[in-house]
Specification:
The structure is a single chain. 39% of the residues lie in helices and 12% in strands. It has helices at 12-21, 31-35, 42-52, 57-70, 74-79, 82-89, 96-111, 120-124, 131-142, 151-160, 171-181, 187-200, 219-223, 344-353, 357-360, and strands at 240-250, 254-259, 270-271, 297-305, 310-320, 330-333. α1 (12-21) packs across α12 (187-200), α10 (151-160) crosses α11 and α10 crosses α12 (187-200). The longest helix has 16 residues, at 96-111. It catalyses: Hydrolyzes free adenine bases from 7,8-dihydro-8-oxoguanine:adenine mismatched double-stranded DNA, leaving an apurinic site. Residues 51-200 form the HhH-GPD domain.
Length: 363
């Protein structure tokens, strides 16, 4: 049972607002649908929550719909080929999520008979499910009174209580506040309402405070400027790393690809040959590091920003008559590139060397 104190406003105004102004999302059971007896599908909730981690709703929607079309049940995803899942995920980023997605589906299928556990602790026992995802699935799919806190909720809570402690140190205090505020009735709708409030009203810049259901209780609005919250620790400047990528093109319009090792950055994804750059060290940037001898010509430099560093790749292209035997990789028609598990940085590299590569690809 949630106890409302002077420090804890009622959740009712927020739920009333959500009933009228909720976003229609392909993975969501709206209040109207729930009133007609529609139940949340734990598979859809889990899939959407994994995809939405550090990714926008607009970016996730087409991926979510394609995944459901190919793998409508968690058992279908469990039985899928790893390479097919990675290829379907390509472009969403944070590729460890895709690897864990597959492992989690397999665990649900083999260890739980295709049925997701309905508690936070049970969900956290699955591969790749941490505190946030477990709380979100427990609340939204099973209506458990779980404290769900993503970036949008952090912003709402930090302003509602004028929490001056900088992030990430403020997270434990924020979660305590969310737990106190979460009602025993409709906790799933409450979690989604908090997310919607942060996404549409309590926005990072120019929040629409006059429309907010918490405006009378918001301490930041009373005491100062809501845009000052959440307080964030000073960002460290991202290091810049360097490397090279090699795009070899045959007369039959095939290019050399290879598969990255399963662990680490971009693990299990497809790439063109590159030098040994990592988040911590630079790789060779000249044509001397090419996978085989050819006339390699510069195609410029591409820049890609990862979470913890910026990568600058020197792009080298070689036009060769026919395929070359290599110990690592395979030759793929340019027209089939969209079907490969190529992360964004590799698509940038290929496009720098072959500008029309993804316009002619079959997809």
């Amino acid at each position: 049972m949630t106890i409302t104190t002077l420090d804890t406003p009622s959740a009712k105004p927020l739920l009333d607002w959500y009933d009228r102004h909720h976003r229609d999302l392909p993975w969501r059971v709206s209040p109207g649908m729930a009133a007609r007896g529609v139940k949340a599908d734990p598979y859809r909730v889990w899939l959407s929550e994994v995809m939405l981690q550090q990714t926008t709703v607009q970016a996730v929607k087409p991926y979510f719909e394609r995944f459901l079309e190919r793998w409508p049940e968690v058992t279908d995803l469990a039985a899928a080929e790893n390479d097919a899942v990675m290829a379907a995920w390509a472009g969403l980023g944070y590729y460890a999520r895709a690897r864990n997605l597959k492992k989690c589906a397999e665990a649900v299928a083999t260890e739980h008979g295709g049925i997701f556990p309905d508690t936070e602790e049970g969900l956290k026992s699955l591969p790749g499910i941490g505190d946030y995802t477990a709380a979100a699935v427990a609340a939204i799919a099973f209506n458990r009174q779980a404290a769900v806190m993503d970036g949008n909720v952090e912003r709402v809570i930090s302003r509602l209580y004028a929490i001056a402690t900088p992030l990430p140190a403020a997270k434990p205090v924020m979660k305590e506040k969310v737990a106190l505020l979460t009602p025993a009735t409709r906790p799933g709708d409450f979690a989604q309402a908090m997310m919607d409030l942060g996404a549409t009203i309590c926005t990072p810049k120019r929040p629409a405070c006059s429309l907010c259901p918490f405006r009378d209780a918001c301490q930041a609005l009373k005491l100062s400027d809501p845009e000052l919250f959440p307080v964030k620790a000073a960002k460290k400047e991202k290091p810049v790393r360097y490397g090279a990528a090699f795009i070899a093109v045959t007369g039959d319009a095939e290019i050399l690809l290879r598969r990255r090792i399963d662990s680490g950055l971009l693990g299990g994804m497809t790439e063109v040959p590159t030098t040994a750059w990592t988040a911590r060290i630079d790789g060779e940037t000249s044509a001397a590091a090419a996978p085989f001898e050819a006339v390699w010509q510069s195609s410029g430099t591409v820049i890609h920003v990862f979470t913890h560093f910026e990568l600058r790749l020197s792009i080298w292209r070689a036009a060769i008559a026919t395929t070359v035997d290599t110990n690592d990789g395979w030759w793929e028609p340019v027209t089939n590139l969209e079907a490969q598990a190529l992360p964004t940085i590799m698509k940038k590299a290929i496009a720098a060397a072959i500008p029309l590569a993804f316009k002619t690809s079959k997809g």
